[in-house]
Specification:
Number of domains: 1
Number of helices: 5
Structural class: mainly alpha
Oligomer: single chain
Number of strands: 0
Radius of gyration: 16 Å
Distance between the termini: 60 Å
Length: about 90
């Protein structure tokens, strides 16, 4: 298990060093997934929230993972987005 923690630390270091890289958001998302697979929900939530607040490309995917983890704020937000999208797609008379 220590090697996994070390690997996650390595990945976080890469994100910090290459913050402006086009791959930083992907890597941050992957860090969230690793934490999720290790049942470390607080760290997974933190990683996914970093994606939302720091990067624009993976916002929807991060919100979906947070909702799946049961974070009420994002669950409610996704429900509202779905209702709004459904409403907007209705044909107008």
């Amino acid at each position: 298990m220590d090697y996994v923690k070390g690997f996650i630390g390595f990945l976080v270091g890469i994100v910090v060093l290459f913050y402006l890289s086009a791959y930083a958001d992907d890597l941050q998302f992957e860090i969230g997934q690793i934490h999720e697979e290790l049942y470390n929900e607080p760290m997974a939530i933190r990683a996914y929230e970093n994606v939302i607040y720091e990067y624009g490309n993976k916002i929807q995917a991060a919100k979906e993972r947070l909702a799946a983890l049961g974070v009420r704020k994002y669950k409610k937000e996704l429900e509202l987005e779905k209702k709004l999208n459904k409403y907007l797609k209705r044909p107008t008379k």
